[in-house]
Amino acid sequence: MFDTVPRREGDDGVRGPAISRVDSSVLSTIAMLDIKWIRDNPAALADALVKRGSSPGEAQAVVDTLIAKDETRRAHLVKLQTAQERRNAASKEIGKAKAAKDEAAAAALMAEVAELKTFLGDAEDEERRLDAELRDALAVVANVPLADVPVGPDEKANVIHRQWGTPGEGGRLTQTPRPAWPKDFAPKEHFEIGEPLGMDFAAAAKLSGARFVVLKGELARLERALGQFMLDLHTREHGYTEVAPPLLVRDDVMFGTGQLPKFREDLFATLRPPTATEQLDFYQQVINEYLAAVGTGRPEGRYCNDLGTRGDTTNLSLTQEGTNRFNQIWLSRNGFWLIPTAEVPLTNLVRDAILSEAELPMRYTALTPCFRSEAGAAGRDTRGMLRQHQFDKVELVSVTTPEQSSAEHERMLTCAEAVLQRLDLPYRVMTLSTGDMGFSAQKTWDIEVWLPGQGTYREISSCSVCGDFQARRMEARYRPAEGKGTRHVHTLNGSGVAVGRALIAVLETYQNPDGSVTVPSALAPYMGGVERIGG
Predict the structure, then answer these.
(1) How does strand 354-356 pair with strand 268-271?
(2) Neighbours of 70 (CB within 10 A)
(3) Which residue in 73, 366, 501, 514 has a CA-CA distance of 20 to 30 Å to 241?
(4) Which of 6-15, 239-248, 252-261 has the lowest mean pLDDT?
């Protein structure tokens, strides 16, 4: 019935020196992906796309396509406007002709108006189609990197921004007393430590398959303690407002933050199957669209196979595109997307809103489950909890004026770092390159925590500034305190931090040779006096 259920693609990342720069005076304009700016500055957009990883030919093709679609749309609008003006003028002339008792002229004018009315009806449909084509083409073009973002194709070009703590020796605060490891001790990975403590992958596989885990007993309590600790830190000390958002959202909400349409392969969708009657009703709707196209002389066979005579639906069947259209209609009306991150609902709290400047910045946080198919991660991190279809994360979202966003980005990073510092977990901050940044980001810092069991750093948080890229998709604006009109807000998002990965880092950093794990001092208020689990 449904050939495919869309999902979403994961974020990407890179490091290296800033090889070329875009003039800072136009950065905010480019970030808006304003078609007028693209039309006036095609070379600058092509350069930005090349920095994002496209070949020069691919980048130029994207720019040429956008401009061509816009030119077609604008030329059609001129025809539409001309026809509207002539219709209005002819309507006035009808009255003059009748007043002059020139019935022949009045009849000719009435016929002309009727013809123009028919043309305008079709032309307005064409306008909507051309608008949608341009909007869809713009919707899959990524945000433009800021000038100071390292240029490079992938994570190998990422640059170390700063580092905290020394791997192998713990963090600098040493708030939690812990015995030194023997010199010959080889730190275990989290799943080796966790499985005897209640980390059950076999039980999860029975319930849901691969990339899920069941946590039991004190291990489940430790994960819950981590999430509560992070929420309390961000709300009590960092000024974020806690939100409990929905976990299921509509298409336009996913579109607003940039997950749709480009990255549906890494998303999970849920929907109610149609009844037999509902399916027939929708099939008839698609067939009616086909018949309307036939009646106006448009190309036939897009949604249906023309097996019968014109106007006869008895032998018509849906093409693959018609089936896809049916699925699209049904999903948009009866389906939801499981959120891949709380960034999605938190940022969309300001969609279609006009805020006052005095309300900004707004800061929200939430602890939610997150759902990702990990479609692009086949064969990676298949053992353990590092890459799961479902995981908990504390998200940070800020909504600011354009002037506030750069400082807010620094502030958000500091708030996320505070989590790891309180837990005494060594980490480093990486500036992601142009090829490694997420779709909606202008600039991203990744925090990578040290995992002794793996002997390497792994991402635990990403903090991104998006400029007005998401705001334009959501139509989120504010009224400046001075001046007229409205401006688009700037949005930022970051992990504060991923709870599952924090649990991994705690297990590996605080493990003891006897198999127990020392509870970090910062979590003591949440563990009811338990200082050690296992052993």
Answers:
(1) unpaired
(2) 19
(3) 501
(4) 6-15
pLDDT for position 312: 54
Spatial CA neighbour of 139 closest among 18, 252, 272: 252
| Pairing mode of beta strands 159-164, 199-200 | unpaired
d(CA 454, CA 188): 8
**What residues are paired with 459 via a beta bridge?**
448
pLDDT at 4: 27
Specify the 3-state DSSP secondary structure of 398. Answer: strand
Tokens linked to 386? 């590092």
Of 108, 80, 85, nearest in space to 96 by CA: 108
| Beta-carbon-side half-sphere exposure of residue 356 (alpha carbons within 13 Å) | 3
Q: What is the DSSP string of 196-233?
A: GGTEEHHHHHHHH-SS--EE-HHHHHHHHHHHHHHHHH
Per-residue burial over 253-286, b = 16 or more CB atoms within 10 Å of its CB, e = otherwise:
bbbbbbbbebbbebbbbebeebeeeeeeebbeeb
* Cβ neighbours for 534, distance < 8 A, ≥ 6 positions apart: 193, 196, 197, 218, 515, 516, 517
pLDDT at 509 over 70: yes
Q: Please, are residues 346 and 397 in contact by the beta-carbon 8 Å criterion?
A: yes
Could you tell me the two tokens for 85? 């003006």
The per-residue pLDDT for 221 is 98
**73 touches 134 (CB < 8 A):** yes
Length of the chain: 535
Three-state DSSP class for 447? strand
Q: Tokens 């433009």 appear where?
A: 144
310 backbone φψ class: left, alpha, beta (φ>0; ψ -120 to 50): beta
